[in-house]
Amino acid sequence: GARVRLISRWKNVDIDIVNPNEAFEGGIKGSAYAEINPQMKMPTFVAADGLRLPESEVISQYLLDAFADRAPSLTPASLNARACASLAVRIHDVYIAPVQGAMYRGPMDRATRAEGIKEIARQMDALEEVCARCEGPFIAGDSPSFADAAVFPTLIFMDFLLPKYFGWKSAFEGRPALEREYAAMMK
């Protein structure tokens, strides 16, 4: 849900954030929350008209469309930059997010964790290649986009956990485009 919060703040859209574990009997795995989101995952966005949307990227795109008239755009201007932004999100959501738990989840046997960390490194290299395609400090150019909102929260985990617990000199060693994006987002 971090990307949704980033986009809503950048777009100056007030959204009520509710913790389902506190707001619904049985929490996120209870039947009350399942009525809103049958996947029983977070986040779920409920629009003013009652439309219920799970999945961070779907919610993000909804907010970008619903508030397209509010600056900043968060959608890259050029076709190529939009494609790179979409590809970066796809790499993050499909290939990094499923294995990022290797950095912090437990218990996990050593071999499984090592394979997860190895896959994280491989996917970071793929993300680096996409980020290097566009000039500018952000993933898709000179200003933040929906891709930065998706990737940045995970990079925070990587920057802290990979050096501290897995002996990496830096999460961004050999990945200057990702390091550039991370520094720009930290500012």
**Biggest sheet statistics:** 2 strands, antiparallel
* Quaternary structure type: single chain
Order of helices and strands: HHHEEHHHHH
Q: Unreliable stretches, pLDDT < 50, 5 or more residues?
A: none
Strand content: under 5%
Report the count of strand segments: 2
Report the structural category.
Answer: mainly alpha
Number of helices: 8
Distance between the termini: 21 Å
Q: Given the C-alpha coordinates, what overall shape results? A: flat
Strand order of the largest sheet: 1-2
Task: Summarize the amount of helix as a percent range.
Answer: 40-55%
Question: What's the Cα radius of gyration?
Answer: 17 Å
Mean pLDDT: 96
Structural summary, described in words:
The protein is mostly helical. Helix 1 runs parallel beside helix 4, helix 5 runs antiparallel to helix 6 and helix 6 packs across helix 8. The chain has a two-stranded antiparallel sheet. Helix content is 55%, strand content 3%. It is flat. The model has no long low-confidence stretch (mean pLDDT 96). The protein is built from eight helices and two strands.
